[in-house]
Amino acid sequence: MTARILVVDDIPANVKLLEARLIAEYFDVLTADNGLDALDLCSRTQVDLVLLDIMMPGIDGFEVCERLKANPRTAHIPVVMVTALDQPADRVRGLKAGADDFLTKPVNDLQLMSRVKSLLRLKALSDELRIRAETAHSFGAMSALNNKVNDEPGRILLVDGRASSQERVLKILRPIADVTTMSDPQAALFEAADSSFDLIIVNTNFDDYDPLRLCSQLRSLERTRFIPVLLMTDEGAEHLVVRALDLGVNDYIMRPVDPNELIARSLTQIRRKRYNEKLRSDVAQTIELAVTDPLTGLNNRRYLENHFQLLFDRAAARGRALSVCMTDIDRFKTINDTYGHDVGDEVLREFANRIRAAVRGADLACRYGGEEFVVVMPDTSSEAAAAIAERLREAIETQPFEVKSIGLSLKVTASLGIASNAGAVAGPEGMLRNADKALYDAKNAGRNRVVSAAA
Questions:
Q1: Going by C-beta distance under 8 Å and a sequence separation of 6 or more, which residues neighbour residue 260?
Q2: 25, 371, 397, 429: which one is catalytic?
């Protein structure tokens, strides 16, 4: 793993020490001796992580962190505060400012590297999602990306082997979250997979169970892979913490637990999970928009061109029938010219609805362009496809199209052409050409009819 790390400290010896340790691990290191220079570097160059001193001249580390997190261009950069301050109040203040973790001077090499590598792994995941979302925004496929997430109380699963400890943690977290407590790790694993949690807190106080086993299983299951895990352990358990971070645990807190620090770390993890969920949702929405016709909600021509080939190859490999129906609204230009394009759009939407109602769940219905639509029918002979097309033709002809915007009922008909993979056909393109020719024959024969291409 390689990355660019910014070290910010006004004492040159501290900078040199951290720089040497990071370079030894093959990281690219930038340095700054004050907060303003650090902000400038983050704004104009790629920085993957910031190691930030608190006590500096000018603006201190708390303000630097707040400014980084307030700027949408730098809010995603993990910040680790490296300081001589070791009071819980200082950690809480840093966490509220947006810091991802604290390291106390003198810095332990094991903790430094484990924390840096863990945060960089998490950032790599967020970066991938963020880049995809920003790419979609650049193409106009979705609204501008922002860092805002909802602040509703989260759902936390607390896995703790002792009732007294459960009660203390529950009392701390109750004001900010709905907390489910469990003492059986395996039962907790099933509960995490079956329910929706924003954070899982695993206490290491089990007498006869390795808590890292649960952490590993949570990261292995698809349903729980992206739920943040916060480990609660004893002071001095550095090697346990390092192993936990390697397994994918997101954060840790040492006992005795400071209530404000636990709340701050829990809220940080919940917000980060919701932000990543929003990115995933945006990416999924972008993919859907890329293959969906916005007017009718059917799949678009791009999706047809990609998926039709898959259906054709599958049918050929299995020796199964495959048919395609191409349909066109008769005299659609007259509708547009007479009533306007808004009415034409209403007719197209209703036409798409009737296609959905007439075809089967396994069929692929797409808007091919303009007033043309295509339905691909797996495991369907030309004769069966013609019967389905006739059912669609009747559904269009017999029921007038109600145009609510102008309070008018329009009689609409459609012509349909059928082609199949029977005989020698040159792939999906050949099937579409045959269906288009059959559609052309239906138009020439008087419209409002189904014509099948010759085998």
A1: 88, 89, 92
A2: 371
